[in-house]
Design a protein that fits this description.
Shape: elongated
Structural class: alpha/beta
Oligomer: single chain
Bound molecules: zinc ion
Number of domains: 4
Helix content: 40-55%
Distance between the termini: 61 Å
Strand content: 5-15%
Number of helices: 14
Strand order of the largest sheet: 3-1-2-4
Length: 360
């Protein structure tokens, strides 16, 4: 297990050589990563990130420092040079679907696949596959931050077929490793609320997309919920005239009034890989249709996971836009809804009506 960030920082400020090999630190302003004992000028704390292995620093696009040479001693210099070439290739090609194989990488290094795999792991602490998967997830997160829909981002990041590729992602990785918006730190969130036919609705968004759309009894209750979700964020009421938020709020309320509205807003959510997989699938369920928990589990390639699908639906923070209300129980019973079964029923009724009138 890695040292705490505070302990790591102590070791960096003390240039403590005893901690060499236990962790690495990266400096985002210079783009390099170092051993704790690096003799170079010390960076500001806010520009430093800590890593358990050099591979994780490489994943963030950092290069090994030329002063302290964090990879030295793990293999000879020629081998390290080859490994870095392989890393660069992975990073440049991670979004090309299935184009990156161990065989292609072995050719670049002019080694056997076996030797490449072993040396790569020995030098960087992770396998080529793990670097590839984490690069893909980073690419995915970048796309999500840029405000694309989850669906588009999943494909753009090189996840050709959603269910299969998600299974390939390192199970421990989740969508929120380390620094990714823990508690919404340093994130500005603006919110707006409105009365709708289904009750009070509060929507909140980062500058990348909606992170919260929920029904509630009072603005106070909903604000409590929002702050609970993002305790570190700077939360402020959306100033009227922030066009995006105004537009989203209008679409949501129109939708609930049964007026024409498309809910394809960008979403910026914290999610585990499994949750993202479920939520992404929910966004593909057409208006007017429903799926059972079991059908969703099967569709995402995890037939035994219908209970976990139910849990993921219940954990959805962005109502309507991620349409968890379109998932029902296997016996065609409605199943639960985070915001009340009556609302779920009303939503499904409304969508059915709208769907039928569309077909006419
Ligand atoms: Zn260094």
């Amino acid at each position: 297990m890695m040292l705490s960030e505070a302990k790591c920082w102590d070791a960096v400020t003390a240039r403590n050589a005893e901690k060499d090999g236990q962790f690495y630190f990266g400096v985002v302003t210079t783009g390099v990563y170092c051993r704790p004992s690096c003799p170079a000028r010390q960076p500001l704390r806010k520009n430093v990130r800590f890593y358990e292995s050099p591979g994780e620093a490489e994943r963030d696009g950092l290069r090994p420092c030329l002063r302290c040479r964090p990879l030295a001693g793990r293999a000879d210099d020629a081998a390290i040079e080859k490994i870095r070439e392989v890393c660069a290739y992975i990073q440049a090609h991670c979004d090309s679907g299935d184009g990156v194989t161990l065989e292609t990488l072995a050719e670049i290094a002019d080694w056997s696949p076996f030797h490449l795999h072993r040396t790569f792991k020995a030098v960087l602490g992770i396998t080529p596959k793990q670097l590839l998967d984490t690069c893909r997830v980073s690419a995915l997160k970048t796309k999500l931050r840029q405000g694309g829909t989850v669906t588009a981002a999943v494909y753009d990041a090189g996840f050709g077929s959603s269910s299969r590729v998600y299974e390939n992602v390192d199970k421990n990785l989740g969508m929120t490793p380390g620094q990714y918006r823990e508690g919404g730190k340093d994130v500005a969130i603006s919110y707006a609320y409105a009365k709708t036919p289904l009750g009070l609705l509060l929507a909140a968004a980062t500058d990348r997309g909606l992170c919260f759309v929920q029904f509630g009894e009072s603005v106070d209750d909903l604000m409590k919920e929002l702050k609970n979700e993002y305790p570190q964020a700077k939360i402020a009421e959306s100033r009227a005239g922030r066009r995006e938020m105004d537009g989203w709020m209008k679409s949501l309320t129109d939708y609930l009034k049964g007026e024409p509205a498309v809910l394809d807003m960008p979403v910026d959510v914290k999610a585990s890989v499994f949750q993202l997989k479920v939520w992404r699938y929910l966004q593909t369920i057409p208006l007017g249709e429903v799926r059972t928990y079991g059908e969703v589990a099967k569709a995402i390639g995890d037939a035994g996971a219908s209970r976990a699908v139910g849990t993921a639906c219940g954990a959805n923070k962005v109502a309507l836009v991620i349409p968890c209300h379109r998932v029902i129980r296997g016996d065609k019973g409605l199943g639960g809804y985070r915001w009340g079964v009556e609302r779920k029923m009303a939503l499904l009724e409304g969508e059915k009506k709208r769907y039928t009138s569309l077909k006419r």
